[in-house]
């Protein structure tokens, strides 16, 4: 296996900085996901790790060996791209074995490696077909298999599922997760899809403008976002955000936004937040719960409902503040009616109004 260490890495295109003074260590056998919106630098960073993009400063180390200027073919990596990049005139078997044949590997070893990869990816029955006779999911399996036969310790995935429909994406997510569990190789995976990140990663590095905003486990990134950007980028339906201030009210702390008031005394570390401090309240829709007779329930006027299959996303107004919240199909939530909810304040997030960072 191999660890990957990026030290003070900088990447620029001309005078435009893409990745800025980035430090990151990926441990042996770790599945790390680089997550962020288009243009944040995640694919460029992956290309630099693979040797396909030059760096402007800093170092890239594999197992403490400096590979910053090592050719891609000598880095011992396997890469899978968004485009399948298969040879259309070659069979699946020839596509899988092409790199090995060019490298002059013994035919018996090639056959063994191809059989192993085909069995692992369940494409043995496709070995004689051309890419044009394959579905999108099958083509992506072949592309993954082509990387596997290289005996790489580090695998780089650049949005490999983006071209697939929702059902195939779900299937291949499971296959990639199984693959990592079987191989125990170091995998670095680029995506803008939060579901892929949350389901696949051991850790997620959320990027914005070439800078890692938060590096943590999927649960911590989702439940305790480091800043307002991370909280907004992860989550579907999106996090509610309300700007107001936290004030003392007797022995309680209350978040106030216009006529909207919410007791936040039970918020973790609430007593360390000074009274009168401006703050942005972040509430995920699933943390606004249908009230079941609780004394602290607040009533909202439902303006819109969006059926989502197993649940319903409701938009309600609470003392002038519009919040989205999830309700069950049998909770009796209807448009233009009142609906009582309780807010799980211990799962809320508060962000600094000026910097956007978590309080």
Automatic annotation (TrEMBL):
Organism listed in the record = Pleomorphomonas diazotrophica
Pfam families per UniProt: ABC_tran (PF00005), OB_MalK (PF17912)
Q: What is this protein called?
A: ABC transporter ATP-binding protein
The family assignment reads: Belongs to the ABC transporter superfamily.
Q: Where in the cell is it found?
A: Cell inner membrane
| Single Gene Ontology BP annotation | carbohydrate transport
Its placement in the membrane is given as:
Peripheral membrane protein
Please state the protein's primary subcellular location. Answer: membrane
The UniProt record lists the ABC transporter domain at 4-234
